[in-house]
Amino acid sequence: MQALDLLLERRSMANLVEPAPEGKFLENIIKAGLRAPDHGNLTPWRFVIAQGEGLRKLSDILVHAAQVNNSPDAVIEKLKKAPFRAPMVITVIAKVTPHDKVPALEQYLSAGCAAQAMQMAAVAQGFQGFWRSGEWMFHKEVHQAFHLQGEDQIVGFLYLGTPGCTAMKVPERKMGDFVEFL
Ligand SMILES: Cc1cc2nc3c(=O)[nH]c(=O)nc-3n(C[C@H](O)[C@H](O)[C@H](O)COP(=O)(O)O)c2cc1C
Asked: pLDDT band for position 143 (50/70/90)?
C-alpha cells in the first residue's frame, strides 16, 4: 500500500475478527507508535496489549469502575462485553513527565499521534482498527488498575484485528470548509 493511499483512504472499522496482528506485524505496529512526534524526547507512551485472558482482565477493570459508580445493570453488561469486540485491544497511555517547556497537553497529543500511527500501521499490513474512548477512560479506578500516576492519561483503547467486512467509503469533505489562508 502506498503511503499516500493509506493517508487518504483509511477508514476505521468496528467489525474486527481473528486473527489479531501478532509477531512481526505487532512489532511493526508498536514501532510505528514509538515513532510518534515527541517534543523534548520524553517518550510519553505506554501501550498495554490485551488479548485472550488480557481482554477478560480489561473487561473486569471496566466493570469494576462501573460498579463503583453504581451504574445500571445494562451499562455493566455492555461494558463486560466491550473488550471482546476485537481480538486485541491496546490501551494507549500518555505517560506525562512534568517539564518546563513541554506541557501535559503536548504529551497527550504525542500519545494520540502514537495511537493513530499504530492504527495506520495495522491497516498498512492488512489489519484494521477502531479507536475508542468513553467516560471509563477517565475513571479513577481504571487509572489505578493501569497504574497511572500524576497527569498520566489514557488517550484511547485501540481495537485491532482482521477486517470483518468491507471498509466504508471515505466521506467527501470539501477542503474549503476547513482551510483558511493567512
Ligand atoms: C480520541 C478518540 C476517541 C474515540 N472514541 C470513540 C468511541 O468511544 N466510540 C466510537 O464509536 N468512536 C470513537 N472514535 C471515533 C472512531 O474511532 C472513528 O474515527 C470514527 O468512527 C470515524 O471513522 P473513520 O476513522 O473511518 O473516519 C474516537 C476517535 C478518537 C480520535
From this structure: very high
pLDDT, tens digit (0-9, with 9 covering 90-100), for 7-57: 999 999 999 999 999 999 999 999 999 999 999 999 999 999 999 999 999
Nearest to 27 by CA among 172, 98, 125: 125
Nearest CA to ligand 1 atom 22: 12
The pLDDT of residue 1 is: 78
Q: Which domains does the chain have, with CATH numbers?
A: 14-54+85-164 (3.40.109.10)
CA-nearest residue, atom 12 of ligand 1: 132
Ligand 1 binding pocket includes 131 (Cβ within 6 Å) = yes
Rounded to whole angstroms, the Cα distance separating 149 from 143 reads: 8
Pocket test for ligand 1, best of 108, 132, 157 (most atoms within 8 A of CB): 132
Q: Cα separation of 119 and 166, whole Å?
A: 17
